[in-house]
Amino acid sequence: MKVLKFGGSSLANADKFVDVAKIIEHESHKNAVSVVLSAPQGITNLLVDIGNAVDSKTATTPFALAELLETLRYRIFDIKGALSNTVSDNDDDKFSDRLNSEFSRLNQLVEGAKLLGFCPEQTRDEILSLGESFSISFLSKVLEASKINVNLIDPRQFLTVKNESGDPIADIPLSKDKFALHYADLKGISLMPGFIGKTIGGQTITLGRNGSDYSAAILAVCAGATSCEIWTDVDGVYNADPRLVENAKLIDSMSFDEAIELSYFGAKILHPKTITPLSNRDIPCLIKNTLAPKKQGTLISKEKSDTSSVKAIASLENVAMINLSGPGMKTKVGMSSQIFSTLAKAEIQVILISQSSAAYRISICVPEEQLEQAMTYLAQEFELEIENSRVDPISSTKGLSVVSLVGDNMQQQKGIAAKFFSSLTQASVNIIAIAQDSSERSISAVVRSQRTDDAVKVCHHNLFIGHSTIDAFVIGCGTVGSELINQIEKQQSVLLKRNIQLNIYGIASSKHLLLDSRGIKLSDDWNNQLQKTDTLFSLENLNQFVEDNHLLNPVIIDVTSSDAIAMCYADYLSANYHVVTANKKANTASFEYYLKLRQIAQANKRRFLYDTNVGAGLPVIDNLQNLLGAGDKLLEFEGILSGSLSYIFGLLHQGLSLSKATLMAKELGYTEPNPAEDLSGLDVARKLLIIARETGLELELEDIQLESIIPAELASIEDPDEFMKALPSLDSNIADLVESAESEHKVLRFIAKIVNSKCVVKISSVGKEHPMYPIEGGENALAMHTHYYQPTPFVIRGYGAGAAVTAAGLFADLLRTLVWDVE
Known about the structure:
By secondary structure, the protein is an alpha/beta fold. It has four domains: 2-233, 3-Layer(aba) Sandwich (Carbamate kinase); 312-465, VC0802-like (2-Layer Sandwich), CATH 3.30.2130; 468-616, Rossmann fold, CATH 3.40.50.720; 620-801, Dihydrodipicolinate Reductase, domain 2, CATH 3.30.360. The chain has 31 helices and 30 strands. Strand 11 (285-289) and strand 12 form a beta hairpin. Helix 1 (14-28) packs across helix 5, helix 14 (416-426) packs across helix 15 (452-465) and helix 16 packs across helix 31.
């Protein structure tokens, strides 16, 4: 004997009743089957509304009741009509009579309640039980049309229920005896309406929502079934809610204990009340999909199916926490017993308990809808203790959720709790309370409800997926920004093989913001898509997108030179974005802002990365920070920090004028759009200030002694064409400097220095013995004299101009935002 239960979603219309009949017929070739049916989808809700409408306390108008009855009749006879057209037999009149008989019964119940002026519980349960009766009529029609004889099981003949605390519980020994008395010789196919039973006194009673699953479990126990199958509209049980977690995986098998824990903590699975009788009698339960009957589903049994440490993650929402504390709690014996006894009297469900080691404070999670009642009972129970300051006034917190990991084998694996709590930290979730059962089968954390989805998604990713993610937003899509995007496109598949998933979810220009919840397909014409979007870049828009899509590791990449963007870094870091930037404006703003960015980044555990601020693709900042972190100290620094000026100064010694050399550099893309920014030397001064600040010098930009290549009147020209027309006026002056240097067998270089905590940027004439002598053609070079590196300095040298190397430097910083798995 096998028990099959079909839920309302499997019985939504005539076609689905036909599909269910095919499944039953197929199963009956191998076993005798008993089938438990829910009401057709949506019918129970209508019957609930009808029960409310005839109750004087909840009724609105008689018209509402008439409308509900008419809607119900339309739904039922719509399915009936479709079935009559689908299956052919000669008993259509008999079928109509059967349904009309059910409606006559409904009308009698409604009229009786109207006469009383209210709807007694017994009448309400009789009304609700009709939904399952309709399903029995429909399925009987389909099976009988195929010449299949069916037996009918009336649960009121055997399924006896105790309802002492408002939670109907089957008396299994008594039910089993009565089943043997009435249905000992069942063969073939039997049909039973779910959701209903009878009290000891013989009255019809409903078993609560999901009561049909419970009915099936009781029938399986009473009939001695070999298995119980629950057919629904999903393939089985998943390791996370698939509506929230896109890559949630189906669980092939799980133990009864795991299923109970998962269902208790909010997973959409069988109710613990359903699982318990099956577990006690070792009857396996299989969850299957009516829409895909060939799929294997999820098997729930006593067996521990595999060695995976965590089987699934679940979340239970709409939870409130009650906090009891006070000096008298530690000294008073039986305080905990008194608390739970009080809650039991009030019929309050206790979801989770957390207690301080000193027994000074006890926190209890209850369903939010029961909070007010629980607070009232506890306040009354401890009124005297509160008045005498032995117990503090009882407090509560609403809007909470419980996130739980479940798995039989968690106790055998080290580091699960560390991964769990680390994941919650990564999701920026504050943990309010923690609980773990003695079997170590579950670990639970109480969190704010608004962060529940993020908590579940990050925990699932870290515990089940196993690869790291970077969720990038690029601000600025000029030459360097476009090159960075191209580099990322080429590298995405390579990184994925290394278990790194890098997606660009947003690209912003000064006027537009392109967002894609699946990640922008970089091989497409993203620039054209960007121009067509009406969305403007703002932190508010980014935050909404990140929240809606539950992104795990958002990173903002600034490839602009915008002051406005740079001054928003504090907001970005505070909003839990990493910031990767080639923009020097933030790090060369006030020293106060410089410190603020680092403090916020540290407080929010975010990365603020800016290696390209100084050496483009050269790892200048990273190496300097590593040296200083290892206890080294910078004694002296000098370097060529501008690739564009390196290129220009090299051409000067090849006989080119300043204006021609600058024009060549501009055409190659080495300079800023307006070369005045390069030749003013201000860019180099900014870079030197950043290096100085990294070493601990509290300097402002005006503290840098800058001797510009060009006079202030030229440096102030904002139009690039106008500047290039004016630049030849300096050619002869620079040529004289070149000639003078060469006469001494030296070359001109634009060098930045830090000596005795003083910062200087100027044109210098250096000989062959100087480390900056060979630097030209767009190279950068830096020489750092430190305690560890002397008399020979630590030298970094390489190309510091061009979009490719700058983009590569940004890419390297971007990869440093990875959050690695906790071992």
